[in-house]
Automatic annotation (TrEMBL), chain A:
This is Phosphate transport system permease protein PstA. Belongs to the binding-protein-dependent transport system permease family. CysTW subfamily. CDD domains: TM_PBP2 (cd06261). Part of the binding-protein-dependent transport system for phosphate; probably responsible for the translocation of the substrate across the membrane. It is found in: Cell membrane.
UniProtKB/TrEMBL annotation, chain B:
The keyword Translocase applies. The lineage of its organism: Bacteria, Bacillati, Actinomycetota, Actinomycetes, Micrococcales. SUPFAM superfamilies: P-loop containing nucleoside triphosphate hydrolases. This is Phosphate ABC transporter ATPase. GO terms for biological process: phosphate ion transmembrane transport. SMART domains: AAA. GO terms for cellular component: membrane. The keyword ATP-binding applies. GO terms for molecular function: ATP binding; ATP hydrolysis activity; phosphate transmembrane transporter activity. Keywords: ATP-binding, Nucleotide-binding, Translocase, Transport. It comes from the Bacteria.
Length: 383, 259
């Protein structure tokens, strides 16, 4: 009898009285198998051992977590090796190490989110969202602390500044970056010019943000005089940082558009630029959109280049072509470093945390927007 | 609405590598011509020179003449885009545009070129092309669904519909059935027989039975060895090639002795 079929026999031979009872034969292909409760059991065991171990040298959450993780990884892979064989043991080791790395990477994220929410939420209200710092002095803060009234002054001007400067830097860098990527993929054909551009884009990726800021300041100093500080200068500085990211991500997306689609369009008598505009880019647009959003998310939190290009303002300025402008990062920086009231710093710190929360929310909204765009533009599936 | 093709002394290169050497062939209007031969002998490469798709590949170039009703495709001043709108092509793997619906795929040749077309004309063109590709009955209820949702054979017929919608003179097919099952293959072979009434069809195939079934004339390409250029060995009526070939190599190939 085929050894493979034996385990398909009825589990309880007594249910078929006509047949003599057959002893259940072990499947020749199967090996030992840990029961389902084994892993949770090992986990509980390592928790207990980890707690005991960390108490020896004075209990702390960090040593507790480290001991537990090490004990669990070692114990689970050893037990799996003993019961299920060496290959399964290695599998368990690698799997649990990957999980451990994932948890490790998650800790800073969760910690940042928790801290910012905890400290930022109390400062978020409509007054904070829709008022600038215009007219808020140390005396105002002192009064609100002494009287116990809500903190006055908000980040409206900084939100406007962040949105405008990011918008203008996207307006500059998205067309430049996309057209560069199109040249590199569709026209450059790895010629000397394309290779040179690729090299310099790589170099640009590594430019420190303060250098980009100084470049923009110097450029506008030459064009408009040494005191030219305004939103558009900051936008230029940020686009120096954005362009390489946009080029790189767009290039990768255009490269994975199958050549067959280009050839199909050519074979229909469609011109090259139309093929690019109507077949290649629509096919890649979802990836391009998320690449652009990532580039925006990278520059929206920049502080140093803004300080040297747009300065700092306490009032609302919606004109990127004139006067100083505040953004959320510079707002946070100044609230923490030079509190409005040197004697009562709490209102400033509260405003800084609230602004930090706003910034995180803005980046998150951007990312969600990119996902939405990506799913809207993605090649349609289904029948 | 179909034109003949005459090829004179055509050499096809990839940069400096001579891929196909010295081809002379006359392809009649409103006929089906099949190119057969072992893998790598240059039949697909040669086919792509007939509508200037070869030069899309970096380094691809040709020497010699390809005459479409007497007009040389490779004369300086000839726009490859004009050539390709007269000589359509169907590829080995079905490649409908993934971002477009079935209807838009059929209209791609018109729409991508920004030609104005009225709604009723567009609908008529879609129906006519899909009927021409024997696909109308299968997709008429889901014209607005994406083309990538069709089966492989349906996608290939959609690509044929897309090609005939631009009303070419000649249709080139590069192993159109190699990715398809026998039933879809049969559907496409029937279609080729119908297309012959309106278009000049040139088909590359690995399947000798297919060549025997669909073509009026057959060209046998062969290669002397790796790194050597492919050559046109024999070109004759399909019946002659398969029953009474003039060259030993052709006989060996069609009788299955090599290749």
């Amino acid at each position: 009898m085929n050894t493979l079929t034996t385990n398909k026999l009825p589990k309880n031979p007594r249910q078929q009285p006509g047949r003599p009872p057959v002893a259940r034969k072990r499947n020749a292909l199967s090996k030992g198998h840990l029961p389902r409760w084994a892993l949770p059991g090992i986990a509980v065991g390592s928790l207990i051992l980890g707690a005991a171990g960390s108490t020896l040298g004075g209990f702390s959450v960090v040593t507790f977590a480290i001991y537990t993780a090490i004990i669990f990884v070692v114990a689970s892979s050893t037990i799996t090796t003993l019961v299920e064989g060496a290959r399964r043991g290695k599998n368990a080791l690698a799997t649990h190490l990957v999980y451990a790395a994932f948890l490790l990477a998650l800790i800073p994220l969760a910690s940042v989110l928790y801290t910012v929410l905890e400290k930022g939420l109390p400062g978020i209200n409509t007054h904070f969202l829709f008022h600038s710092m215009n007219g808020i002095t140390g005396a105002t803060d002192n009064a609100s602390v002494e009287d116990g009234t809500p903190v006055l002054g908000g980040a409206y001007h900084a939100v406007i500044g962040t949105l405008l400067i990011t918008l203008w830097s996207s307006l500059i860098s998205v067309p430049v970056g996309m057209l560069t990527a199109i040249y590199l993929v569709e026209y450059g054909k790895n010629g000397p010019l394309a290779r040179g551009i690729t090299f310099f884009v790589d170099v640009m990726t590594g430019i420190p943000s303060i250098v980009a800021g100084l470049f923009a300041t110097a450029l506008f100093a030459v064009l408009m005089g040494p005191t030219a500080r305004m939103g558009i200068v900051a936008a230029v500085a940020l686009s120096v940082l954005m362009i390489p990211t946009v080029v790189r991500s767009t290039e990768e997306m255009l490269k994975i558009v199958p050549n067959e689609l280009r050839e199909a369009a050519y074979a229909l008598g469609v011109r090259k630029w139309r093929t690019i505009a109507k077949v290649v880019i629509p096919t890649a647009i979802s990836g391009i959109a998320s690449g652009v959003t990532l580039a925006i998310a990278r520059v929206i939190g920049e502080t140093a280049p803004i300080l040297v290009t747009a300065g700092l303002a306490n009032n609302i300025n919606v004109n990127v072509f004139g006067n100083w402008m505040a953004t959320l990062p510079t707002f946070i920086y100044y609230q923490i470093l030079t509190p409005t009231s040197p004697t009562n710093v709490d209102p400033s710190i509260q405003r800084a945390w609230a602004a930090a929360l706003l910034l995180i929310v803005m980046v998150m909204v951007l990312n969600l927007g990119a996902r939405l765009i990506a799913s809207l533009f993605a090649p349609k599936k289904g029948r | 609405m179909s034109k003949r093709i005459d090829v004179k002394d055509l050499n096809v290169y990839y940069t400096n590598f001579l891929a196909v050497e010295d081809v002379n062939i006359e392809i009649e209007a409103k006929s089906v011509t099949a190119f057969i031969g072992p893998s790598g002998c240059g039949k697909s490469t040669f086919l792509r020179t007939l509508n200037r798709m070869h030069e899309v590949i970096p380094g691809g170039r040709v020497e010699g003449e390809v005459l479409l009703d007497g007009d040389n495709l490779y004369e300086s001043g000839v726009d490859p885009v004009t050539v390709r709108s007269q000589i359509g092509m169907v590829f080995q793997r079905p490649n409908p545009f993934p971002t477009m619906s079935i209807k838009d795929n059929v209209l791609a040749g018109v729409k991508l070129n920004n030609k104005k077309i009225s709604r009723s004309d567009a609908d008529a063109l879609v129906e006519k092309s899909l009927r021409g590709a024997n696909l109308w009955n299968e997709v008429k209820d889901r014209l607005d669904k994406p083309g990538s949702g069709l089966s492989g054979g349906q996608q290939q017929r959609l690509c044929i519909a897309r090609t005939i919608a631009v009303k070419p003179q000649v249709i080139l097919m590069d192993e159109p059935c190699s990715a398809l099952d026998p039933i879809s293959t049969l559907a496409i072979e029937d279609l080729i027989n119908e297309l012959k009434n309106e278009f000049t069809v040139v088909i590359v195939t690995h399947n000798m039975q297919q060549a025997a079934r669909v073509s009026d004339k057959t060209a046998f390409f062969n290669i002397a060895g790796t790194g050597k250029p492919g050559k046109l060995i024999e070109y004759a009526e399909t019946a002659t090639i398969f029953s009474n070939p003039g060259v030993k190599a052709t006989e060996d190939y069609v009788s299955g002795r090599f290749g």
